[in-house]
Specification:
By secondary structure, the chain is of the alpha+beta class. The radius of gyration is 25 Å and the shape is elongated. Helices cover 20% and strands 38% of the residues. A five-stranded mixed β-barrel has the order 3-4-5-7-6. A two-stranded antiparallel sheet has the order 1-2. The protein contains four helices and eight strands, in the order ββαααβββαβββ.
Length: 162
């Protein structure tokens, strides 16, 4: 039994009983709560809105070969090599929706393989980098599939106008 006044709190409960709670238990619960609340901070900070990073007034069509397909949180990524007008190969990073959303649309980790020739219709990054947000992807077999995030502008092929 803890000694009152040393590492304990004391409160009087309405029915007349006294309750003595060790401070260690309160401290432990507080630390666990802080850890739980801050453990999601990195994921929340990493997530962004479409409008924060991409410009819906700058559509882009990218035709190229898949280098890497990553179906990861918070967004999937397609790395593709695109042949520029001058004949040089330019590497692009293309963001897609989150894995759960992609799976609901029929995507799998095997949807794209290195070397697959695809066409991506999307929107350029505001920072001018070779980064885009995919709205639709035309797969190697000719199927056109939706890949956009929730911020993809209405009217984009594959989206519904709400």
């Amino acid at each position: 039994m803890p000694i009152l006044g040393i590492g304990t709190t004391h409160e009087h409960i309405i029915d007349g009983r006294d309750k003595i709670t060790p401070v260690i238990a309160i401290l432990r619960a507080s630390v666990l709560a802080i850890v739980a609340l801050t453990s999601n901070a990195a994921a929340a900070a990493a997530h962004h809105s479409f409008a924060a990073e991409f410009d819906f007034q700058k559509p882009v069509t990218l035709k190229g070969a898949v280098v890497l397909w990553e179906m990861i949180n918070p967004h999937g990524w397609i790395t593709i090599d695109v042949r520029a007008e001058d004949g040089k190969t330019v590497r692009w990073m293309v963001e897609t929706s989150n894995p759960n959303g992609l799976m609901r649309l029929g995507w799998t980790k095997r949807s794209l393989k290195p070397g697959d020739e695809i066409t991506v219709e999307g929107y350029k990054a505001k920072d001018g980098s070779n980064t885009a947000n995919a709205a639709t992807v035309t797969l190697a077999d000719g199927r056109k599939v939706f890949a956009g995030s929730s911020g993809t502008p209405a009217g984009t092929p594959g989206t519904s106008d709400k």
